[in-house]
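Good morning N.,

You mentioned wanting to compare the apo and holo forms, so I went ahead and generated the holo version with S-adenosylmethionine. This is what I fed in:
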Amino acid sequence: MTEEYLADKNVYGPGTELLELINKNIIDFKRYELIILDVGFNDPASFILLHYLHGLKIYKGIDFKAKQDFNINISFKDRIPEEMVTSNKIEPFERYELFYKYVLTQWNEVNKLMLNQVEFESIFQFVFETKIQDYIKSSEFELFSPNIIFVSNLLHLISDKREAENIFVQLLNELAEDGIIWIKIYNSRSESNSYRFPYSESEIKGLEKHMETIYKDEQDDKTLIIGKKKKTGVKDIQPNASP
Ligand SMILES: C[S@@+](CC[C@H](N)C(=O)[O-])C[C@H]1O[C@@H](n2cnc3c(N)ncnc32)[C@H](O)[C@@H]1O
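and this is what came out, ligand included:
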């Protein structure tokens, strides 16, 4: 599967980006099954694609959005019958059925069958109307041990950077020992506004000091960093503690 092939299919999102890095042998996941926590998932289409092209065991998405806002991917609207897209009452499994029938079947590599609802819901778990700040305090979070955590386009939405760093460290603490954490963040080349709080180079380094960075990519006004736990373990930082 080539990069051009992925780009050609217009499935945007972190799942597709991960597939590209796996294809380039930058990330090697052959050793274990993927157990994913996706913080602020918005649109899980690229992870459904990841399931079909690579395989994943569990995908759990957290978002404070309400169920009714769930939208599989705006770019596929022209392929999906309009009356289905415009219904805002649609549940994740129905969205998945549409995505499978109208989008995934166009991929020659997709030779796995459509999942039934029980199978779908045992792999793809969505936690709606939940802030990550609340989720990390829950027992569900403590019991879930992901080997890959996505914090993609999220940390710069939190105005209090100390709070964002604390969330990041708590997520890192729950990562399986051999797992990776994926952060995509607006950097200093990006303009700030009332809902976007870009990270300076030293602030990005401040996040990196908690982990061992294994890959870093400057993408114009965003920076992608992939890291794993430091061998020595990570200490909790206290919210609002003095630096
Ligand atoms: C810009 S989208 C990023 C979507 C996806 N992760 C990506 O990289 O394409 C940010 C998402 O995070 C959600 N979000 C923002 N702050 C959040 C929070 N504190 N807890 C949970 N979800 C949050 C928003 O509702 C939105 O769906």
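The chain has one domain: 3-229.

Happy to go through it together on a call whenever suits you.

Best,
F.
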